[in-house]
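MBL fold metallo-hydrolase, Streptacidiphilus alkalitolerans. C-alpha cells?
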Amino acid sequence: MVTIEFWGGLGVIGGSKVMVRDGAHRVLLDIGLDIPSGRDPFRAPVRTRPGRELADRLRLDVAPHIPGLFDPAALDPGSPLAEPVGAAGDTAVFVSHPHIDHVGLAGFVRADIPVHAHTDAVDLLRALDASGQGLAHGDPHWHRLDDRQRVAVGPMEVECVAVDHDVPGASGYLVHTSDGTLAFTGDIRFHGRHPQRSWGFTDRAADCDVLVTEGTTLGWETRGPLRGEADVERDFAAALERTPGLVLLSMYARDLERVGAFLGLAGAAGRSVVWPAPVAAFLRLAGVGGRAEVLSAAEVPLSDVHGAPSRYVVAPDPDDLPSLLDLPVGEGFPASVLVHANGEPLGPFEPRWEPFTDWLAALGVELRQIGCSGHADQDQLHHMLERMRPRVVFPIHTTAPARLHPPLGMSRVLAGYGRRYDFRGRTAGRAEG
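C-alpha cells:
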C-alpha cells in the first residue's frame, strides 16, 4: 500500500513537507522551514545558534522528526533520527522552488540522500550560497531537473513539471506510484508572467488519484480585482515619475524577472537602483545585469545620493532601520516614498512589520504597497480542481483548508500532522518518528 504523510504546511502558510511511501521507498516533497501549527519560537528577534539550527528546532518540535533523513552531524549525539532508513537510494527529496519555507531545511539532509530541484532553482540557490546567503548547514549536493524530466525512486517515478510562481525554477511534481498518481502543486499561480505553465501542470495532472495543493489565499479576504505583474510595473513606474525625492524599494530579490523589469523601469526614468551589498552580489551571480547596472550600497557614496536623490532608488536593509537616517528622507528633503513590492518585512503578520512602518511614519516617508500575489486566488484554485478532476484533494500551506470546496464526487481531506493516509484519503495510522 502507498501512503502519504504530512510533516508541515498544516494550519500555516509555508513549511510544506509531504512524504510518499511505496514499499520501502520514500519520496519527500519539499523540506521547508516552518512548524505544524502555532507561532514559531524562532521568529525575530530570536536568532538561531550556529551549529544548533536543526537540533534546537527538533528539541522544540518545530522541525519534523523523520528517521534517517538528516545529517547526523546536525543532530544531538545519540539521536534516534540519525540511523539510516533502508539502503542508499531508498529515499529522495524533491524541492518545488527556492523559497525558505519550501527549501530551508535542505542543507541538513544526509549526504547519501539525493536532493532534486529544477535547474533554474539550483542556479538561484547556488548564487545565494556564493553571496553568503545560502542555506543553513550548506547546500546539499543538488540533482538538477529539467521540465518533464522523470526520476525513478524504487517503484515510483517522480516527474518535474514547471509552474508559474514568483521565483525562477518553480515546479510541481507528479509522483507515479504502485497505487496511482499523486500531484503536488508546490506554490502555484495563474495570473503571473507564465500562466501557461500552471495550466500545463493542471492538464498534465488531469484525473490524478490524489492532489496535494497549496491554498495560501483561502485564508485571505481579498478585495478588488486580482493584480498581476503589469499592475506592479505600472505602479512602480508611476512612483518613479511622481516622486520628487528618493524612492525606497522593498522587494524580494529572488523574483529575478521582477528585478529585471524594475531595473529597466528605473533606468528609463533616469534613476539607478542601489542594493544592499549582499543582495547586489547575489543578483550579479544570478546573472541579472552587470556591475554598471546592479549597484551596491558599498559602491555608491551617500554624498551622491544626497546630492541628487531624484536620480536614485535605494533598497534599504529591513534589519538595519537606523540606516534610514543616513538617507535624504524626512524633514528638509524632497518628498520620498517607500514602494513595497512583496519585499521584507512581508506584512503585518511579521514581527518586523510594526517597527518598519513606525520608522517610515517617523521620517514622513509614504508607504505604498504595489505587489501582487505569488499564489493562486480562491477562484483559480477551484477552477484548477474542476479542470484537473483528482479523486482526493489535500489542501495544505493555508490557514483555512476547509475553505477549499471541491466539486461533487471529489473527496477533500484535512490532513493531520504525522498521520498516514492511503490514496483514498483514509487514515492509515500514525507515521513513525
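The longest helix spans residues 229-242.
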